[in-house]
What does this fold into?
Amino acid sequence: MALRNIVKKGDDVLLKNCREVKDFNPRLHKLIDDMRETLLDSGGVGLAAPQVGVLRRVVLVLDTKVEPNEIIELINPEIIETEGEQEGPEGCLSVPGVWGIVKRPMRVKVRAQNRFGETFEVEGEELTARAFCHEIDHLSGVLFETHVSRFLSQEEMEALYAENEEE
Ligand code: CO
It folds into this structure.
């Protein structure tokens, strides 16, 4: 496994459509394993392949509801059901130092394939639902800022960071 560089806003790779994964081969597994390491190192809750410069439909989401946290691997994911609504602060590893209020569904059901090409469905709520939506957006070149109703001020961001450190 190896850490990969996280692409930052300004790089066109973040604005492109990702291609479907068709070969569930060792190369894909290496990409996923590297993304797992990169996600854990980053302290974020999700990572999409374009964020490491790869235009493939691959997403990882950290499930923080289970201890120890598990990483959900989603290949060719699609949102098939949503329910309810939540509004809260959101940021992105590719857009450092920027946070904004984004409205997302409260519950999201995703259909995807695992690293061996087997189809499965997974449901998430709250932070996990938010992360599913945010990361799957990356696969169509959509950054969270598109959905922001209000950007947080410097003071609000500092309060948010302090809150997270207390946990
Ligand atoms: Co992001």
Notes: The pocket of cobalt (II) ion is lined by residues 92-94, 134, 138, 144 (CB under 6 Å).
